[in-house]
Design brief:
Layout (H helix, E strand, L loop, with lengths): L11 H6 L10 E3 L5 E4 L5 E4 L8 H28 L1 H12 E6 L6 E2 L7 E11 L8 H15 L3 H10 L8 E7 L1 H10 L6 E11 L6 H4 L2 E3 L2 H6 L8 E3 L2 H5 L1 H4 L4 E7 L5 E8 L6 E4 L3 H17 L5 E7 L5 E7 L13 H8 L9 H4 L9 H10 L9 E3 L2 E4 L2 E4 L7 E3 L1 H7 L2 H9 L1 E2 L6 E3 L3 H11 L21 H8 L5 H8 L9 H12 L3 E3 L4 E5 L5 E3 L4 E4 L4 H16 L14 E7 L8 E8 L6 E7 L5 H18 L1
Parallel strand pairs: 5-13
Antiparallel strand pairs: 1-2, 2-3, 4-11, 6-7, 6-8, 9-10, 11-12, 13-23, 14-15, 14-28, 16-19, 17-18, 20-21, 22-25, 23-24, 26-27, 27-28
Helix pairs in contact: 2-3, 4-5, 11-22, 14-21, 15-21, 16-19
Length: 652
């Protein structure tokens, strides 16, 4: 091998002879044909053969373009990451190191009208986890979830479902199990060293001091759902939220405002330092209009009579006639709302939800029933106000009215004889109300010998008294009731409206439906001489700064019946106690006025029993309405219940 061989050409000696220098007559030039030439002083060219790779100007441009292109891509990516997304990634990194931890606010207390606490807050432990802090490896993650599930006595699928449900809360605590024991809490704290995702939280659960009788009014809390979170952006997955009664109606008042801690965590999510803290703001307390001692007595009286008659369902409402406050509202059967504060099992919930007596159902405001004869005072007032009758107008009650082949009976087979409005109310005479409601046809059935109010006027006055629409009580799930019309029957039943339909309406039968609350509040109109109030439960809000917000009465309607006509109806209701269907109330030491009702509602079904009235007659304080489902005649069961309650209220 010739070690003197030059790497650029064959002639190494020539290469050695001519050195590169900066003189004008010596130098390398590169030919465009891939040869290296040496230029001598004498102008002779001696060429050396090129043994390397030839690089042309074109190829250099391509290489340069590629390098430039790649550099631009790299620069663009760096610009995107550092400039455009830089703050976001910094924030993400910071959120992995610094976290905002909420501090729960104590929920406000609910008091009765005498400021007796009806609910309190009891501390409890619950298990939560932060999904982001779970192991990332699939197998290890599955093992961790299984371990947590075993100790918490839940299914792994339940944990996975919670993680999936609250997947947008990856860096926050999500609930796994409520009300874990002290021993479980201690064990999970130890397990936190192995699985930092686990968190034992100290929360507050509701403790209801007067369960059952107040369950439909107070309601309960439950764990927040995904839908709740979507509608309430200020809530967290570990929150409880009002689901029924006052707890949900005044959720925003009772809830309070979260505090927060800014904490620093290590690489696996463990807290290492508290950086900042803001204290929570306790929720406001509220006073409701219910007298809890009276409520308990009403519950006991209702239960006693139901058991004695082999019944289980009913409603009682007592209200203040001067302002529409609810003093007592009982719906039977009851339920213990404390069970919703604990770890509610599927079996326990199903036993309530599937119970044929529907204990979760608030009959007082949500139940819809035929009114029976309790509605007769409304239509008596309407007839007086429309001047189709006077106090002295008489119709003959001979046992019923025959229209063609149809017979509309009175409850007394032989009839009641000559009947005016006061007697019709006192003895609940159907014939009188058939006539003032639907009129009286002649023998041809073409012409009226007496023209009644008609269905349109009946509907008009029913609405004035608060029927066929929500009254607006401050509790959820109030029903509208229902008042039929000619148009409704033609459209829904595809049948014509007949005079018999109007007759049925006029005595509170047919397709008419009312709630016990509506019956109680049209009774108020006669008790307070003409004002329909909006029913309400809230009496006052006591804010944490010491301010008290009093809930003022709201008037829905007033002066739509003259004082003269109200007085006539009132006298008829008082006559009902003196010698009519409510006469067993006559021996009370307080004067009562009222109306019974026996509401037929289905084939081979016992009618619902009603009583509604007020006391004292001359200076009314309260209105009382009693409904007993399938109780039979109102005078047989509803009146005795009302009597015992009235005696206790005025003498107990």
């Amino acid at each position: 091998m010739n070690n003197n061989k030059d790497i650029f050409g064959k002639n190494s000696l020539e290469h050695q002879e001519y050195k590169i220098n900066k003189s004008a007559d010596n130098g390398w030039i590169e030919s465009s044909f891939g040869k290296y030439s040496w230029i001598k002083n004498n102008g002779e060219n001696e060429s050396a053969e090129f043994l390397g790779i030839s690089i042309t100007n074109f190829k250099l441009k391509i290489v340069g373009f590629i390098i430039l292109f790649l550099s631009l891509i790299l620069f663009g990516r760096v610009f995107y990451l550092q400039i455009i997304k830089g703050q976001e990634y910094v924030a993400m990194a910071e959120s992995n190191r610094i976290r905002q931890v909420p501090i729960i606010a104590e929920r406000g207390i609910i008091f009765d009208r005498n400021q007796k606490a009806l609910v309190g807050n009891a501390p409890n432990f619950y298990l939560a986890l932060v999904p982001n802090d779970l192991p990332k490896d699939g197998a290890i993650r599955t093992e961790a979830i299984q371990k947590i599930a075993d100790i918490a006595n839940v299914l792994p699928q339940e944990i996975e479902e919670q993680i999936s449900t609250f997947k947008s809360y990856n860096y926050q605590s999500i609930p796994i199990k409520n009300n874990i024991s002290y021993e479980q809490a201690a064990y999970f704290e130890i397990l936190n060293n192995t699985y930092p995702a686990i968190q034992v939280k100290t929360g507050l659960q509701r403790k209801y001091e007067t369960p059952e009788s107040l369950s439909h009014i107070i309601g309960y809390l439950r764990n927040i759902t995904k839908d709740d979170l979507e509608n309430n952006s200020s809530y967290l997955p570990t929150d409880d939220i009002g689901k029924s009664g006052v707890e949900t109606q005044y959720e925003s008042v009772l809830r309070g405002e979260y505090g927060k801690q800014q904490i620093e965590v290590d690489a696996v999510g463990r807290e290492v330092n508290i950086l900042a803290k803001k204290n929570p703001v306790r929720g406001s307390d509220i006073i409701i209009s219910i007298d809890s001692d009276f409520q308990k007595k009403v519950e006991d009286i209702l239960q006693k009579h139901l058991r004695a008659n082999g019944l289980s369902r009913g409603s009682i409402i007592i209200s203040d006639v001067s302002n529409g406050e609810i003093l007592s509202m009982v719906s039977a059967p009851f339920y213990d709302n404390n069970i919703f504060s604990g770890e509610l099992s599927v079996d326990t919930y199903n036993s309530l939800a599937n119970n044929p007596n529907k204990p979760l159902f608030n009959r007082s405001i949500s139940g819809e029933y035929p009114s029976g004869s309790t509605i007769k005072p409304v239509f008596a007032a309407a007839a007086l106000e429309e001047n189709i009758i006077t106090e002295n107008t008489n119709f003959l009650s001979s046992g019923g009215i025959k229209v063609g082949d149809w017979f509309y009976p009175d409850w007394k087979a032989g009839g009641h004889g000559a009947t005016n409005v006061r007697k019709a109310l006192a003895e609940s005479i159907n014939t009188f109300f058939y006539i003032i409601g639907g009129g009286l046809l002649d023998n041809t059935l073409q012409n009226f010998t007496f023209e009644g109010l008609g269905v349109a006027k009946l509907a008009e006055y029913a609405k004035k008294f608060g029927l066929s629409k929500k009254l607006g009580i401050d509790l959820p799930s109030e029903s509208d009731g229902f008042f039929p019309s000619k148009e409704w029957k033609e459209e829904v039943k595809q049948e014509a409206w007949y005079i018999g339909d109007t007759y049925h309406l006029a005595i509170g039968q047919g397709d008419l439906l009312v709630t016990p609350l509506q019956v109680n509040f049209f009774t108020l109109v006669f008790a307070n001489e003409g004002t329909l109030y909006q029913p309400h439960i809230l009496k006052a809000i006591m804010k944490q700064d010491g301010n008290v917000i009093v809930n003022e009465p709201k008037v829905l309607n007033k002066n739509f019946i003259s004082q003269k006509n109200i007085d006539i109806v009132r006298k008829g209701l008082r006559d009902g106690v003196l010698y009519g269907s409510s006469r067993s109330l006559g021996d009370l030491n307080v004067e009562v006025a009222g109306k019974t009702g026996t509401a037929e509602w289905g084939t081979n079904k016992k009618p619902h029993a009603w009583f509604t009235g007020f006391a004292p007659y001359d200076n009314p304080k309260i209105a009382i309405t009693v409904l007993i489902e399938e109780g039979g005649e109102g005078s047989a069961i509803a009146v005795p219940i009302a009597k015992e309650i009235l005696w206790w209220y005025f003498n107990g």
